[in-house]
Write a structure and sequence with these properties.
- With 367 residues, this protein is of the alpha/beta class.
- The protein folds into 2 domains: 129 residues, Creatine Amidinohydrolase, Chain A, domain 1, CATH 3.40.350; 171 residues, Rossmann fold.
- A hairpin with a 2-residue loop joins strand 2 and strand 3.
- Helix 12 crosses helix 15.
- It is globular.
Length: 367
């Protein structure tokens, strides 16, 4: 009997809670190592290939995924080999190549800037992702070996290297994009193929925004709490509407924003801010024509957090998944009462492509 990936990786003995004393021990006493990483032998040839590709597609973003791990049996994966296009353009191969890496060629006035987004080495600092290296049996260093640091990746490939967590934001701006599809669901979702022939220009954006205010809000969300954070998020939203969303709408584009009012009505309430305060704070924003809420069971959400690592302070609360599910259900009713069309989709068993198709079919016609 073949089980899906979630079932294969769920409930193993090494997923039991780690005693605080042992967890603290894991964060201390590690020897520093700064190995010299030479440039890969094929890096110069890969740079020439990227230059040819850049000249062929001026003004277009090009996204090439290395692909991810594939399960062989239960919690045992096949040896990783990156996608041939990624290998051709980076020269990264063999055991050093990190699964889920993505090469992005971002257009400039004179060509393209090449950046590779990778999973950096497992941290050991006791921070939000500090348990990955000894608890994550798929990506943790104790389980699968040492990954390169961002600096080592940059030295080896001759490219700018950034954390994979920054990828979705890097793909959020509205630039004509060519994508090697079917290798990475995050890339497929962040760079959609379009609304199935309906000829609609889409402007993709995100909140907190990529502005100076949005960047400050995002970088300090783990240290600023409650009403203060809610006010920062709202201030960024009003500026985002004025300087990016409204101009795009006036140009006739359809705007797709990753996180908007629905996220505020959940995350800020998890942070102890009353619903009435949040509604008053956002009373003058542009209400969305469609709010899409992706949900799943609390158990699956908790599993996904364990798999990918803790990314913000809300993930430290074990009750968060069930509270989040309940608050999103309540938020759907709140938005519906305000005449916002709401689409709630269960992502437990659906593929990203299936979800994207259902969303595309639900989008209202342009005004």
């Amino acid at each position: 009997m073949v089980r899906d990936d979630m079932q294969q990786r769920e409930g193993a003995s090494h997923d039991r809670a780690v005693p605080p004393t042992l967890a603290e021990c894991f964060t201390q006493g590690w020897a520093e190592e700064t190995p010299a990483v030479p440039v890969l032998p094929g890096a110069a040839y890969a740079a020439k290939r990227r230059a040819l590709l850049s000249a062929r597609f001026p003004g277009e973003r090009i996204v090439i995924s290395a692909g991810g791990l594939k399960v062989r049996s239960n919690d045992f994966d096949y040896p990783f080999r990156p996608h041939s296009a990624f290998l051709h353009l980076t020269a990264d191969e063999g055991g050093a190549a990190a699964p889920d890496s993505v090469l992005v060629l971002e257009p400039t006035g004179t060509g393209h800037d090449a950046t590779v987004f990778v999973r950096p080495r497992s941290p050991r600092d006791g921070g939000p992702n500090g348990t990955e290296f000894y608890r994550d049996r798929r990506y943790g260093e104790f389980w699968t070996g040492r990954r390169r640091t961002l600096a080592e990746t940059s030295d080896a490939l001759g490219l700018t290297a950034l954390p994979r967590d920054d990828l979705a934001r890097a793909l959020a701006s509205d630039v004509p994009t060519r994508v090697v599809r079917g290798q990475d669901p995050v890339v497929d979702a962040a760079a959609p193929a379009g609304r199935r022939g309906r000829g609609i220009v889409v402007h993709r954006t995100v909140e907190p925004s990529t502005s100076e205010l949005g960047t400050f809000t995002r970088q300090n969300a783990n240290t600023i709490h409650g009403h203060a954070l809610a006010c920062l998020v709202a201030a960024d939203r009003y500026a985002h509407i004025e300087h990016e969303i409204k101009p795009s709408l006036h140009a006739g584009d359809t705007v797709i924003c990753d996180r908007y009012l629905a996220s505020t009505l959940v995350l800020q309430r998890l942070d102890g801010v009353p619903l009435e305060f949040l509604l008053d704070l956002n009373a003058d924003i542009l209400m969305p024509d469609l709010a899409v809420i992706l949900t799943a069971s609390p158990g699956l959400i908790a599993h996904r957090i364990a798999e990918r690592g803790i990314r913000h302070r809300f993930h430290l609360d074990p009750t968060m998944p069930s509270r989040e599910v309940d608050l999103y259900a309540e938020t759907a009713l709140t938005l519906t009462a305000k005449n916002v069309k709401v689409l709630v989709l269960d992502s437990s068993n659906a593929t990203p492509s299936e979800l994207a198709a259902e969303i595309a079919d639900t989008l209202p016609d342009p005004r």
